[in-house]
Automatic annotation (TrEMBL):
Entry keyword set: Aminotransferase, DNA-binding, Pyridoxal phosphate, Transcription, Transcription regulation, Transferase
Entry keyword 4Fe-4S: no
Biological source species: Paenibacillus zeisoli
SUPFAM superfamilies the UniProt entry points to: PLP-dependent transferases, Winged helix' DNA-binding domain
UniProt name for this protein: PLP-dependent aminotransferase family protein
Similarity field: In the C-terminal section; belongs to the class-I pyridoxal-phosphate-dependent aminotransferase family.
A single GO molecular function term of this UniProt record: pyridoxal phosphate binding
Necessary cofactors: pyridoxal 5'-phosphate
Pfam families to which the protein is assigned, alphabetical: Aminotran_1_2 (PF00155), GntR (PF00392)
Keyword flag DNA-binding: yes
InterPro entries, sorted: Aminotransferase_I/II_large, HTH_trans_reg/aminotransferase, PyrdxlP-dep_Trfase, PyrdxlP-dep_Trfase_major, PyrdxlP-dep_Trfase_small, Tscrpt_reg_HTH_GntR, WH-like_DNA-bd_sf, WH_DNA-bd_sf
Domain HTH gntR-type: 3-71
Superkingdom to which the source organism belongs: Bacteria
Length: 467
């Protein structure tokens, strides 16, 4: 996308809005028509509209289009810390004292709440009491609400080629609880657990917490070194292998389909459970990802974990874990001990959202918005000549720091003084040695904030920008 063109379109629209060329609540020209009129790409117009929306100039009506936000409401528009109109951030000096205290957080692999379907969830939260008046007067079953489990089984069969009985699926309080349950249920202190390197930082803590001996398995843009993996399986006879093979956190890499089939075979051959954490499956920018490893499992050696936090409602804490009978029984036992079942209210609210037709439309828009943010981040980092493998999905870039600037921790300390945060590579490394990598999430901060934050970061890295 041409950056200058985007600026011109954005400035033009902003000027028109300031000059009141459109009335309050008037509908703006559709993305298609405006793109044709201006002779630019639709994405350029969409991005300009999105930025105007995020900065409180316009609003969007589902399935209708963009409208002018009245001045009065604009005054009430609460800017998030990361929000700042493009012109503001671009016209200021790199470390302008006025803004240096603001936090540009690229540390969380979380989606900006402005991009989530909050309005629908609040609608369903009200509706749920009409439909289920006793929802707060009873417990959920330990395994989770039947209606929700049935909808999820159908969804997984349709979209993931994963065919399950309802008894094979349990609702958990977030995917993090599901990982914790697998650790409690299947790993004894001193047993070996294979874990990707780098990996989701909380998984390291969870498996270390149950006394496991962690053996790292490097993940590359094209998956794992399967010969090496087999050698590890033979040598250590590990209890399980925790993996996040689809738009992996933190790298965004995806394990190819041929390795997925082989992984299911190896798990069975070496009697090593695979715990497949599939938290980012729906966030892709090109082709949808290959089916989960679990879809190739015939003997119950793959435990499948599915979070919905990354694109729907992290606050609901609804996730699913799938396993076949003897293992599911053990997971249920630990779930019972832990909290006796996930909150029913949250499950029913999520059920109403899943059962509506809104999810597909929301995901389509979310992918566009996150794709734009990723492009913006990559544009900025490219100017500094930094290196990373551009991911086809997920929420983050795994970036190698230039050698001259010192370790990720040192850069992070300097960045903190300038209001920029990221996740240092070490935090994702089971053996704590990845000091020259950082994870930058492009999902939480808007485009203007990303540009400003990347400029600050590059300056703090101690490496001069290329001309
Ligand atoms: C790989 C991975 N698994 C699980 C989680 C946690 O998901 P939940 O919010 O459902 O607990 C995260 C959150 O960042 C994650 O990155």
């Amino acid at each position: 996308m041409d950056k200058r063109l985007f600026r011109q379109v954005y400035d033009l629209l902003l000027e028109k809005l300031k000059n009141k060329e459109w009335e309050e609540h008037e509908k703006l020209p559709s993305v298609r028509i405006l793109a044709e009129e201006l002779g630019v790409n639709r994405l350029t117009v969409l991005r300009a509209y999105q930025l105007l929306k995020e900065t409180g100039r316009i609003y969007v009506k589902e399935k209708s289009g963009y409208y002018v936000l009245p001045e009065k409401q604009r005054e009430g528009h609460v800017r998030t810390k990361e929000e700042a109109p493009l012109h503001e951030s671009e016209s200021e000096s790199r470390f302008g004292a006025r803004r240096s205290a603001q936090l540009h957080s690229f540390a969380q692999a979380l989606v900006d709440p402005a991009l989530l379907p909050n309005r629908y969830f609040s609608e369903y939260a009200k509706k749920v009491f009409d439909l289920y008046p006793k929802v707060l007067g009873t417990y959920s079953s330990v395994q989770g609400d039947e209606e929700l489990r049935s909808v999820l089984c159908r969804l997984f069969a349709r979209t993931h080629q994963l065919h399950l009985n309802m008894e094979d699926l349990m609702i958990t309080t977030g995917a993090q609880q599901a990982i914790d349950l697998t650790a409690r249920a299947f790993v004894q202190s001193g047993e070996v657990v294979l874990i990707e390197r780098p990996t989701y930082h909380a998984a390291i803590t969870i498996f270390e917490g149950c006394g496991a001996r962690l053996v790292p398995v490097d993940i590359h843009p094209d998956g794992y070194d399967m010969d090496h993996l087999e050698a590890l399986l033979r040598q250590y006879q590990p209890k399980l292998f925790y993996m996040n093979p689809t738009f992996h956190n933190p790298t965004g890499y995806t394990v190819p389909i041929r390795q997925r089939k082989l992984l299911a075979e190896l798990a069975e051959r070496y009697q090593c459970l695979i715990v497949e954490d599939d938290s980012f499956r729906d966030i892709y920018f090109g082709e949808p990802p290959p089916p989960p490893v679990a879809s190739y499992d015939t003997e119950g050696w793959v435990i499948y974990i599915r979070s919905f936090s990354k694109y729907a409602a992290p606050g609901l804490r609804v996730a699913a874990v799938c396993a076949q009978p003897p293992r599911m029984n053990l997971l249920l036992q630990y779930k019972y001990q832990m909290d006796n079942g996930a909150p029913l209210l949250n499950q029913k609210v999520f059920l109403l959202y899943l059962a509506s037709e809104r999810l597909t439309g929301h995901l389509e828009k979310l992918r566009i918005a996150l794709g734009i943010r990723k492009t913006v981040m990559e544009e900025e980092l490219r100017t500094a000549g930094w290196t990373w493998e551009s991911p086809q999905g997920g929420l983050s870039l795994w970036v190698r720091l230039p050698a001259e600037g010192g370790s990720a921790e040192e850069v992070l300390r300097r960045c903190a003084e300038h209001g920029v945060a990221f996740s240092p590579g070490n935090a994702h490394d089971p053996i704590r040695e990845l000091r020259n990598y950082i994870r930058l999430s492009y999902s939480f901060v808007n485009e203007a904030g990303i540009r400003e934050g990347m400029r600050r970061l590059i300056s703090c890295s101690g490496v001069p920008e290329r001309a």
